[in-house]
Design goal:
By secondary structure, the chain is an alpha/beta fold. 53% of the residues are buried. The protein folds into 3 domains: 95 residues, MurE/MurF, N-terminal domain (Udp-n-acetylmuramoylalanyl-d-glutamate--2,6- Diaminopimelate Ligase, Chain: A, domain 1, 3-Layer(aba) Sandwich); 223 residues, Mur-like, catalytic domain (UDP-N-acetylmuramoyl-L-alanine:D-glutamate ligase, 3-Layer(aba) Sandwich), CATH 3.40.1190; 153 residues, Mur ligase, C-terminal domain (Protein-Tyrosine Phosphatase, Chain A). Helices cover 32% and strands 21% of the residues. It has 16 helices and 24 strands. The termini are far apart. Strands 9-10-8-11-12-13-14-15-16 form a 9-stranded mixed β-sheet, sandwiched between helices. Strands 17-18-22-19-20-21 form a 6-stranded mixed β-sheet, sandwiched between helices.
Length: 493
Amino acid sequence: MASSTKARRTLSEIASAVAARQQVRHVGQDVVVGDVHMDSRHVGPGSLYTAIRGARVDGHRFIEEAVAAGAVAVAVEEPPAIQIPHLLLDDSRAALGWMAAVVHDNPSTQLGTIGITGTNGKTTVAHMLAAMAGGADGDMAVIGTVSANLHGAAASPRTTPEASTTQRILRRLVDQGITRVAIEVSSHAMEMGRVNGIGFDVVAFTNLSQDHLDYHHTMEAYYQAKAKLFSEQWAPHAVIWVDDPYGRRLAAEATMQVTTVGTRPDADVQVVYGRGSPSGSVFELITANGKIGYSSPLAGQFNVANAAIALTCAAIVGIDTRAAGRRLAKMVPIPGRYNTVESPTGLWVVVDYAHTPDAIRNVIAETRPQIEGKVIVVVGAGGDRDREKRPLMGEAASTADFAFITNDNPRSEDPAAIRQAVIAGIPSDAAFRVEPDRRVAIRRALAMATKEDAVLILGKGHETEQEYAEHIEAFEDAHVAREEMRWLKEVQP
């Protein structure tokens, strides 16, 4: 992505911005910098190359390549072997976002910027916010997991892109006239400084349940990574869902103005659930200013919680509440987030990204009251990710009437070992079947179901590929479900 033509700062200006946060020494000429990169392959003329020591690769090895590509200066943790203007830093990864923010003229301060964190619901809240904005209330982009269709803020392989990429995106949004942005903030992003340099107007917390313990190791460390965002350093205002126990703790510990949201009568914004259906949900929000009713095309109480968080954030950044409600009622479904797949027999088929124990359990629980028959799930666990949650995912899947345990994205791991770890959590009296081939698992779930049942295809959601150690296959759950339903209609009388 090309940087803005307005984005230019001297190396001494960049050093001054970093000096407020860590020790920095400016060595050499005071050159003008037009962009900041941490990947030498992306460096162009006028760039500042930032050498970062990663888990596998040390960016200091690529200084000469970066200079050959046009870097006018480097940011390093050790003096470079060649003569070039440089900033000598204590922590180049932490400094990356702050340096990029200065070079791009601090674009987050020119936007209404909302940060959303939590285990589940980040993407849904962000896209609800984008739907709520518009018209007289401006235009909002999303930076996150499935944002490719929103103002060119392209989807990243990570929930939150690297800091220099995010600042470049924000600069482009400002230049395009976008007035607001919702940013999904992962726990990894907080730990690795990917949101450094962003000034948020409001930050929101959805919930916390087991995930990413391969990285954080304990739930307390996972919570603390999220909790870092809830201080005056990051934003003046927070919106926190307090039906979640970690949310109640966070509301007590946060060091800024907090608006609590939940079904509890003492919440600042109280949620009253209405009667839902497969086609959507209705609810009321009660505040000190009174009661307002809303509707959403997204089914499930968990999506009502997401909508309540989004509506509260929207009000804080100046979006008219009633207009936001009207736009919410008409929003386009979010890819892979409780998407219903049309069935020729009237069977209720849902594709959802649920890949944590709580998310799986919630999707099953939300679906059950809406149908007369059985809930059948198709689910697997991803490889090279939190292994401790796998038996808990199996236990959660067993709350359905029948579960097909299959492959998700095995990545570098043995698919059979992953499946076995999931099965280990399934109670002995639960009804399930192992079917390694995900397409076949979907076919058998659909064939088993009657029109009174629901088939929930969980874990991959919006993803369009299935990743194995040696190859990647095209695979989109919704597309495969449609193909299999057409095939079943042809072969079954």
